[in-house]
Amino acid sequence: MPTANIAVVGLAVMGSNLARNLASREGNTVAVYNRTTQKTDDLIAAHPEAEFVKAATMQELADSLQKPRTAIIMVKAGRPTDAVIDELVSVFEPGDIIVDGGNALFTDTIRREAAVRETGIHFVGCGISGGEEGALNGPSLMPGGTAESYETLGPILERIAAVAEGEPCVTHVGTDGAGHFVKMVHNGIEYADMQLIAEAYDLIRRGTGKSPAEIADIFDAWNGGELESYLIEITAEVLRQVDAETGTPLVDVILDAAGAKGTGAWTVQTALDLGVPVSGIAEAVFARSLSSRLAQREAATDLPGPSDAWTVADPEAFVEDVRKALFASKIIAYSQGFDEIVAAAEEHGWEIQKGEVARIWRAGCIIRARFLNDITSAYAENPDLPALLLAPYFRDALGQTQEAWRRVVVAAAQAGIPAPAFSSSLSYYDGLRADRLPAALVQGQRDFFGAHTYRRVDKDGTFHTQWSGDRTEVEAVDTH
């Protein structure tokens, strides 16, 4: 007789922790399956208090589940996910629900949802943020899929999600790939946030000579204000850590080559396809790539730099400038991320509620931060904001920080210290607010060498110039 109301397939650390989270909630009995049976046995043996039902085969898993059957896949993205989906489809029935909880590329989720839908089974791509700890204690959850599937799945996810101000950090994001898309953008913003924090640390250390432990105190103080966030909090902990072997700050022992798992690059690649500038996120991705080119960097260490040594006249004032630059650049990263979500929603027909996205990021996820409440409020007040940074709160914040932001970018450039996320974010801000950009010249160049045409400021239509030395002839182009 079926006894479980939810299943987890794939019992590596994330899957095991999610299964434990589910089993700890009243009303849940969790069927668990892993291709290697030993992992299933180890999980059950380690947690005898949990309401687990062991399944040795996919058929046993299906037989153990109440209808509509619901299974969450927690396996490696790509072919392993496709293989598990095929197995589940073979033992499930129309109306059942398959959930992919991995870090899948949203276009794969769109493809899978369309294929599974043909069988009458629901397919849900669910972004899960918060890492191993979040999976166990309460993640931020971003499920896509049909509204019908969410009627069954929603109450289960609401019980295991992180909670912020009494509200579970989960919402039905939209159809097919919407959930995984929003999770991808979350990770892109995460890249930018981490790079900005790293640049702030680097500038303070080089400019003031403060030790990592002293800078940790600065980040602690910042975490009590508008920059309050999980990433600021853990940065202070990382900077305080001392290497047991050498007695030096651990941050000085760690190789300065940052890794990446692909979601940041996906965010940038997708933004390019959508025609959405996410320059702050892009520079964060490129900064990791540059950091990993160790041989090239070593060969370039003797390239000429600034001739004068850099000194900061007022260290405390400089630290405050960096704080303001960090906050301003952080606003840009989130604004660009939400621009990408808006563009994708239009492209794919997703009805994504931007304020709801900010709401479910307030706890459980890596980019959780105090000012997500301000983002939620901004979209509640005006759901059709042309850009997040145009909301009154963020417009005022940028007005109060932009002078300090400029001083920091200038100081970094003069000192020869790379600050790509700070500087690109400022360039984006200035580009957005400019009354005229040099793109007019670019259009003239394109028309000259490729007859790509252009529009004019003084009349409607599309035009092409017959470029011939000193004499030109302008003609209207019929685009119909």
TrEMBL record:
Q: Does the keyword Glycoprotein apply?
A: no
Q: Which InterPro entries match?
A: 6-PGluconate_DH-like_C_sf, 6PGD_dom2, 6PGDH_C, 6PGDH_Gnd/GntZ, 6PGDH_NADP-bd, NAD(P)-bd_dom_sf, Pgluconate_DH
The enzyme's E.C. designation: 1.1.1.44
Q: Where is the 6-phosphogluconate dehydrogenase C-terminal domain?
A: 179-468
Q: What class of enzyme is it?
A: oxidoreductase
Q: NADP as a keyword?
A: yes
Q: Name one Pfam family in it.
A: 6PGD
Q: Where does this protein act, in terms of pathway?
A: Carbohydrate degradation; pentose phosphate pathway; D-ribulose 5-phosphate from D-glucose 6-phosphate (oxidative stage): step 3/3
Q: Which domain of life is it from?
A: Bacteria
- Chemical reaction(s) catalysed: 6-phospho-D-gluconate + NADP(+) = D-ribulose 5-phosphate + CO2 + NADPH
Q: Which UniProt keywords apply?
A: Gluconate utilization, NADP, Oxidoreductase, Pentose shunt
Please give the function described in this protein's UniProt entry: Catalyzes the oxidative decarboxylation of 6-phosphogluconate to ribulose 5-phosphate and CO(2), with concomitant reduction of NADP to NADPH.
Subunit organization: Homodimer.
**NCBIfam families, A to Z:** gnd (TIGR00873), PRK09287.1 (NF006765)
Q: Which family does it belong to?
A: Belongs to the 6-phosphogluconate dehydrogenase family.
| Descriptive protein name | 6-phosphogluconate dehydrogenase, decarboxylating
